From TrEMBL, chain A:
Keywords: Membrane, Transmembrane, Transmembrane helix. It comes from Dactylosporangium siamense. The gene is ycgQ. Pfam families: DUF1980, DUF1980_C. The keyword Transmembrane helix applies. This is Membrane protein.
TrEMBL record, chain B:
It is a multi-pass membrane protein. InterPro entries: DUF318, UPF0718. The keyword Plastid does not apply. It is found in: Cell membrane. It comes from Dactylosporangium siamense. GO terms for cellular component: plasma membrane. Belongs to the UPF0718 family. This is Permease.
Amino acid sequence: MNRQAQAVILLLLGGAVLRASVTDQYLNYVKPGLRGFLIAAAVLLLLTGAAALWQGMRTGSPAPDGHDHDHDHEHGHADDEDGHGHHSPRVAWLLLLPALGLLLVAPPALGSYAAGRTGTALTAPSDFAPLPAGDPVRIGLLDYASRAIFDQGRSLGDRRVQLTGFVMPGPDGTTILTRMIVSCCAADARPIKVALGGDLPPGIAGDPNEEQWFEVVGVYDARTVKDPVNAESIPYLRVVEAKAVATPAEQYES
Amino acid sequence: MLAALLVVVVLLRGPITRALSAPALQTWMTVFVSIMTQAIPFLVFGVALSAIIAVFVPASFFARALPKHPALAVPVAGAAGVVLPGCECASVPVAGALIRRGVVPGAAFAFLLASPAINPIVLVSTAVAFPGEPKMVVARAVTSLIVACLMGWLWQAFGKGDWLRMPSRSHLDGLAKWPAFWASVRHDVLHAGGFLVVGAAAAAVVAVVVPKSWLQLLSTNPVVAILALSLLAFILSICSEADAFVAASLTQFSLTARLAFLVVGPMIDLKLFAMQAGILGRGFALRFAPATFVMAVTVSAIVGTVIW
């Protein structure tokens, strides 16, 4: 790989990361807190690519066959001897995959396919603070599900809560409101599932191919259903009001 | 050739996007792009730090900072891992730069293994993820440090220098400092980044293909559970800052099995193996990675059994 190709790969990758982080696209993959680091890393990549072009122009053009001399003596000895024939710089072509993935394909946030294959991910907190003020009170799905399962709904009482998530079909014909939580990147995403009871509006059943987001208001319901993936309990919410909403920019619950 | 490739990809954008819209493929793509997006800042900063070490820090600095005796240098370097609050992607190029700067390899490897596991960010996130189990933080830090030191000493005792095949830096000789810095960053990003792609793609395949319901079956036998979670940590390649939250949610497994998950993951996983093979040499990675895995699982099992 000659120096120009190296520079182009660096510029593409830097550009792709920069575009993803100045728009909301990066929120489909990582936590909001990473934005500053992403922008700084993208700038460093762009500068590295620019430096390579600039050095190339100053020192004259590289060999035309794409194997300039600095490659050969850089890696020649390693490749001769262990004979497995991977030319180390060649592996750099693979960096086109994430660059083009970000620029052209821009895959969406994880949805019902991933959520259906992973068990609901609750961990018992050490204590339950009283619910914040508000009627209905807006809380996260993890907060609701932990209070419902580990506190048997005591700290929920008969308060009306408002949850936001996407709807998907669940076990035993249930309708499940789901939100993925992410601690670092989408590779560690786990779903939090809440079964919806009460009067559901028609058409809320959930299309497994396209997530529809809903804002539901409801009260604690003592029933539970087992998640078939990991045998954990999924709590119910007795829905009193549900309305379809647009997909939020930050789809993962923080 | 690059230009032609790009034109083809842009022209075929529609069909490519359609082909990738099958749910499994789309999930793979999202997980792959996410691992890369998460890793790129740490990779780039790690590479910049190793370029600074290579270009601006004189070799004599490390000779003075570390104890003369290699056996003592190992634990000191391991404990020094506390100060690099990066994820494991940064530690591989930095370890390579340290060895090139004359640090004894055993000490550099102790640093490589310890720094992603025992830095403050990781320990705090472990405490947050296990609120009812404060011993998990201590167990993780102690076990990781023990494994890192044992591996460092093991290398001092049995390791052979010719297993290491690091790309030589002769192209940097004779360059002024700043051109050398940029050339080093460029070379390492392309090199380590390419291998990171291999590891991330493989980890994403596993995340999509292996059904999580298998885990349920494996959690009942205590020994199988430890091995299963260690293997899961190896293939999932989750960042060390996030793995505690995943471990906390694996409630059907014993605390010892989850400790093994937390100790193995930051030390050796698919993406680290790919990067070690690229930066430190394949002969090195093929020996060092399995040894690290066995050592991490064994020490975790012992520590876990003693504590819980």
